[in-house]
């Protein structure tokens, strides 16, 4: 079992950048496909982006391509989400996830989330 702890959220102006981190413990992230979800107020959680343990990246929607970049550092057992050119509609709680053989929409493990607020 893996435990996930997100950090790096905060308040940023539109057009700004943030880098979220997800520190894993219990097991190495090299055993998992790692992903990021977000949940905006009044909305359902949505899959943002994921990185396969075998390599490769999957985006949930085209709107994040070119703005959001996921990366993993297996040596540090940490996953990152670099978010650039942030928009007010990116405001949400961002969750780190880990999965083995389930679909991207149904990961096995979740972090507690970190709040990202983008002001206009």
What descriptors fit this protein?
globular; four-stranded antiparallel beta sheet; 120 residues; mainly beta; seven-stranded mixed beta sheet
Concise summary:
The protein has 120 residues and is mostly beta strands. The protein has strands at 3-7, 10-13, 18-25, 33-39, 46-51, 57-59, 68-73, 78-83, 92-99, 109-110, 114-119.
Shape: globular
Overall pLDDT score: 96
Low-confidence stretches: none
> How many DSSP helices?
0
Helix content: under 10%
Radius of gyration: 13 Å
Largest sheet: 7 strands, mixed
Give your account of this protein's structure.
- Strands 2, 4, 5, 6, 9, 10 and 11 form a 7-stranded mixed beta sheet that branches. A 4-stranded antiparallel beta sheet has the order 1-3-8-7, with no helix packed on it.
- The model has no long low-confidence stretch (mean pLDDT 96).
- It has no helices and 11 strands.
- It is an all-beta fold and 120 residues long.
- 32% of the residues are buried.
- A hairpin with a 5-residue loop joins strand 5 and strand 6.
- The chain is globular, with a radius of gyration of 13 Å.
